[in-house]
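> forwarded from #structure-qc
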């Protein structure tokens, strides 16, 4: 059941399956501390920003989507709450929502985030006209499938053959390396998402900090693919990810390639690279030039990164057999 066969999914206009309500602004001065969830247009903590003493605007068992702030973030709300006016509240029209279906729908809705931003808000009108791909049965969304899919994720616990003990790291033999001395570093070709067909299986990589950098899967048959087994870094996010499969990218993505790289030592290196993110921002991107000149500290053997040590270390940690 855990294998999603999206080729059979169908597009549904959000206005056809959801009823919409806008949140209501409450200023900081008007807030009284209490126990009711107050939702803001944020990307974390299930959108809960404050706890207030006020009557609930909404009773829960619904989905909230930010159209401002952290645009496109979607959350399932199980409890009563008050939502700011930067949030739209979505309720299913023709089916009883539950947590499993809500979590499934939130994941699908968030796939539209890349289309919007603080300067191009996902307004109520645009949201109603947005199409989302969903499992379909007999001409309607297959909510039973969604419910069962999420429920089985919670039942089938992940097991590992690796002992549940994180090995210690000895940094005695670590030293600084310049990335361009050991990696071929190039900027990827920028492909506009509007030029791609959504119905495909090629990862489309952007500067997101989430989902291993993948915004969506596309049909990129008319374009030259970047080969897998590489590390990518998004310019403004400064977030590094390992890409095992061929892919295409949006703007300002840098690719790091080495014939010594594999999925294990790459995960070790991306962890180190992601310690650099605090240095960069939208106004100071971690672009290709900066990456070539960056120094990071790694285990060293015979004057170069100790690729074998990094691989063995990752293989020794819990759940590494699931990588």
């Amino acid at each position: 059941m855990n294998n999603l066969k999206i080729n059979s999914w169908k597009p549904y206009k959000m206005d056809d399956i959801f009823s919409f309500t806008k949140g209501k602004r409450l200023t900081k001065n008007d807030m009284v501390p209490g126990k009711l969830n107050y939702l803001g247009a944020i990307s974390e903590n299930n959108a809960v920003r404050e706890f207030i003493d006020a009557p609930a605007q909404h009773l829960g068992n619904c989905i909230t989507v930010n159209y401002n702030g952290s645009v496109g973030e979607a959350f399932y709300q199980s409890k009563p709450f008050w939502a700011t006016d930067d949030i739209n509240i979505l309720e299913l029209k023709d089916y009883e929502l539950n947590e499993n279906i809500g979590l499934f729908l939130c994941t699908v809705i968030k796939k539209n985030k890349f289309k919007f931003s603080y300067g191009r808000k996902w307004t109520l009108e645009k949201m109603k006209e947005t199409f989302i791909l969903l499992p379909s049965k007999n001409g309607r969304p297959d909510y039973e499938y969604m419910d069962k899919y999420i429920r089985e994720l919670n039942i089938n616990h992940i097991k590992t053959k690796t002992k549940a003990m994180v090995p210690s790291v000895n940094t005695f033999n670590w030293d600084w390396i310049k990335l361009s001395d050991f990696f071929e570093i190039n900027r990827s070709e920028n492909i506009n998402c509007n030029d791609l067909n959504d119905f495909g299986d090629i990862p489309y990589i952007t500067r997101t900090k989430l989902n291993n950098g993948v915004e969506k899967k596309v049909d990129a048959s008319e374009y030259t693919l970047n080969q897998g087994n590489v590390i990518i870094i998004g310019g403004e996010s400064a977030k590094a990810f390992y890409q095992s499969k061929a892919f295409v990218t949006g703007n300002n993505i840098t690719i790091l390639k080495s014939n010594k790289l594999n999925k294990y030592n790459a995960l070790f290196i991306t962890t180190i690279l992601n310690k650099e993110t605090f240095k960069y921002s939208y106004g100071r991107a971690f672009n290709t030039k900066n990456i070539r000149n960056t120094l990071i500290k790694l285990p060293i053997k015979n004057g170069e990164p100790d690729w074998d040590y990094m691989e063995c270390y990752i293989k020794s940690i819990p759940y590494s057999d699931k990588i």
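QC bot note: The two ends are 20 Å apart (CA to CA). The longest strand covers residues 197-205.
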